[in-house]
Amino acid sequence: MTAMKTYSASEVAKYLRALTNPEDGDLLSNLKLQKLCYYAQGIGIATRGVPLFSDEIEAWQHGPVVPSVYQEYKEHGANDIPPPVGLDSSIFTKADINLMNDVYDEYGQFSAWKLRNMTHQEPPWVNAYKNTHSKIITPEALAEHFIPEVNDSYRDAYRAKIQEQ
Which pTM was predicted? Predict the structure, then answer.
């Protein structure tokens, strides 16, 4: 099997930003982008067996946050972040592009606050947020929560696409 590629959270965030279509009213705030990165990481771990990106996710007041991505886009405040210009999607495998597209299709339909509220019901955020020693949402916590959420046929299709490359 081909070795799984791990990206930076910034690369994943940029790809997710590229999926928005502001002309259709499809907008992405930093809050929403954070939740999409969280779901991409969780579904990625459950599907790939390894994290999609190497950056840590922390449990903040309004849900999971990738601090490096937050810093990159904090200047936008609560406003929408424009789609990127000149995205080079060739850095991603076709299987990972499909995975990120699927995450965007599934979770991108929800508002930032709906996603925030969804994450507040999920053990990875809940357990990390109440932890007094560390607010890090670990890959293990994501795997424990998301593996049951991803069916075997989806994992098999992902692995088949990796083999094609």
Answer: 0.95
